[in-house]
Design brief:
Radius of gyration of chain A: 19 Å
Number of helices of chain A: 7
Strand content of chain A: 15-25%
Structural class of chain A: alpha/beta
Oligomer: homodimer
Strand order of the largest sheet of chain A: 3-2-4-1-5
Largest interface: A-B, 58 and 57 residues
Number of strands of chain A: 10
Largest sheet of chain A: 5 strands, parallel
Order of helices and strands of chain A: EHEHEHEHEHEHEHEEE
Helix content of chain A: 25-40%
């Protein structure tokens, strides 16, 4: 009797944007694994789940994925997280690891999956990505007709970003929070600020959806849609 | 008393991948507008809704969006569709127009919205895009870490497609059904068939998720994920 590992996307923030499938799966598992970047840290994904799902009988298992700048620390914490989840699976329990947004888009779950997929049964349940929810809230499309779009994480390389702006109808930057000033300067330079929508803390009380106000504070999970 | 127009994404095919918000909104509206490409044609989006939502008190309004190759016919049918929805809104009714997948990604709703947004209140509810659901079913990620991805509709231009393959970690082609042979030849030429997952009729009984078998028949709503 070996356990099953589920990766579940819980959507971008609004608890009602969880799918029926995600709610049912979470209510069915034995253990809920909650990725956090430090012990005792709050998890937005877990807050979403608590709003909608009946989890009073679940074992809650916070698993730390360090976001340290030191690579060795990140790898060590990942290894520990995998070991912790594995222990539950070996005991025959079903474990769901949750993620904000979609489970296939920049989720921590994929690291754990890769380490455990040869030994255990894996399932994945998709969630609404933040850029879809943000576009809907802003009453804009992501793409129409024959348009194409690019999605990039944060912002590594200004050349790649500018090239995407020139080649594609829509460019989406996720987890943009730490690079907002640099992105602002590039959008100003390329005269694209008018076509930019900022989506911060989508679906949460602190939500901001609107034009690019460079004087605001933006959190890590800020998404930009540039049409 | 003027009505409200809602655009609602119902996800890729599996009824359980509808969000709680979409189910509640559909059960709350007066009129359900169902886009079809010809009168009497079946709507997959409507089949999904019927599985999950209680719609016995709803007015069901099929609206035809012609997919004719003649532009004038497409425009005429769009105009008629908008008029039909407008009549309901003017009577003070709340109308939900549904779409497969996400409401902001290649949805017919955007045409109707553009024509009516100055006169009526609009709301949009996102849905799970087919490529997210397909990746989850195939147990692959869309993107991880610092990767970027491109989404393009069908397949217009082989140069643009090959460029995307070279520049981005993941390329997704939606509504690829009519161009499968051309895409196959390009993937063969560029030695990318091994990295390609085909997602056809995701979440439906006729679902196929797997490698690119060029001898299969594929429907219009086929998605390719090339990593």
């Amino acid at each position: 009797m070996r356990g099953t590992l589920l990766g579940i996307g819980v959507g971008p923030g609004d608890p009602e944007l969880m799918t029926i499938k995600a709610v049912r799966a979470i209510e069915h598992v034995d253990v809920l694994a909650i990725p956090v970047s430090a012990a005792e840290e709050k998890s937005i994904a877990f807050e979403i789940v608590q709003e909608v799902c009946d989890i009073k009988d679940k074992v809650i298992l916070p698993v730390v994925f360090s976001m340290s700048r030191v690579k060795e620390e990140r790898l060590q914490s990942r290894k520990k997280a995998v070991e912790r989840v594995k222990k539950e699976l070996e005991a025959g329990r079903t474990v769901a690891m949750i993620a904000l947004g979609d489970i296939g888009i920049y989720s921590t779950f994929m690291y754990v999956k890769k380490e455990l997929e040869t030994e255990f049964l894996i399932k994945m349940i998709p969630g609404i990505p933040s850029f879809c929810a943000g576009a809907s809230k802003a009453l804009i499309s992501v793409v129409e007709g024959r348009e194409s779009f690019v999605v990039m994480p944060s912002f590594q390389d200004s050349e790649q970003f500018v090239q995407a702006l020139q080649q594609y109808d829509t460019v989406i930057v996720m987890k943009a929070g730490r690079k907002m000033k640099e992105i602002y300067d590039l959008l100003l330079k390329w005269n694209r600020l008018d076509q930019t929508t900022v989506i911060a803390n989508c679906g949460m009380p602190s939500e901001y959806i609107g034009s690019f106000d460079v004087n605001r504070e933006y959190g890590y999970f800020t998404t930009l849609i540039i049409k």
